[in-house]
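To close the section, here is one more complete example, presented without commentary so you can practise reading it yourself. The ligand is adenosine-5'-diphosphate.
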Amino acid sequence: MPEPIIYAKDVCKTFIATSVGHTDVRALDNAHLTVEAGEVVVIIGPSGSGKSTFLRTFNMLERPDSGKIIVDGMDLMGDSFNINNLRAEIGMVFQSFNLFPHMTALNNVTLAPSVVRKVSSEEAEETAKYFLQKVGLGDKFYAYPSQLSGGQQQRVAIARSLAMKPKVVLFDEPTSALDPEMIGEVLDVMKQLAREGMTMVVVTHEMGFANQAADKVVFMNQGAVLEVDTPQNFFNNPKNERLKQFLNQIL
Ligand SMILES: Nc1ncnc2c1ncn2[C@@H]1O[C@H](COP(=O)(O)OP(=O)(O)O)[C@@H](O)[C@H]1O
Ligand SMILES: [Mg+2]
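Output:
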C-alpha cells in the first residue's frame, strides 16, 4: 500500500481573539483527511466551517496547534522539513487569482519555476507555453491580466500552479469570484486535470463538479470532518444529520 500524499489526523487550530469583544474561534476541531495519489477530493460545508483553514494547513500557510500532517512523506508538525520543498510539491489555486498585473500570462507562469525550481529560461518558457495551451490559452501568452476575463485569469493561475509540476494541487473556491458564464470553462479544465490523474483537493460549492469529478466528498462543519464518502453515497444516502440539513438547503 503506497503512502497517501496527504495524511491529516486530529488537526486542531484556534484563532485567538486579538481585540476586545471578540472571542477565540476554534477553526479546526480534530479534522482528518487522507488523500491518495491520483485522488480528487472535494470538500464542502457551510461558510466558516474551516474548509480554507484546513486546506491551508496542507502547505503550511496555516500552522495547526496540534495534530499530525504528513504530506508526501514530510512531517509538517516536525521541524526537519523544508518549507520551500513543501510549497514546490503543493500547488494552490485561490478564489482571487493573484496574478502579477505588470506581467504577461507567460511571465506569470514562468516566474516560480525560474525562481524556485531554478530551471533555465528556455525550459521555463517551454513548460509555461505547454500548460497555457493545456488550459486553452494558447493564444494569450503575451496578454496582461487586465486584458483577460476572470475565467481566463483563473486558467492562467491554474497553469501557473501546474508549471511547478506539483504532486497535488489545492483549490480554494476557484470559481467563486467568477461571473456565472465563466465558471464552466474553469471547471472543464479542472475536470480534465482530474481525468488525467492529477491529485486534487477542491473546496467548492459546485455540487455538479463534486458529483462528476470527485473520488470522495468531505463534509466539514464547525471545524470537524463529519462525513467522507463517494459522491454517490454522499449525495444520495448521507448519514450525518447536519449534512442532510445542509444538502436540503443547497440542492
Ligand atoms: N486569520 C484568521 N484570524 C481569525 N479567525 C480566522 C482566521 N481565518 C479564519 N478564521 C475563522 O476561522 C473559522 C473558519 O474559517 P475558514 O477556514 O475560512 O472557513 P471556510 O473556508 O469554511 O469558510 C471562521 O470562523 C473564520 O472566521
Ligand atoms: Mg473558505
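Once you have examined the C-alpha cells, check your reading against these statements. Strands lie at 6-15, 25-35, 40-44, 66-71, 74-75, 90-93, 168-172, 199-203, 216-221, 224-229. The longest helix spans residues 180-195.
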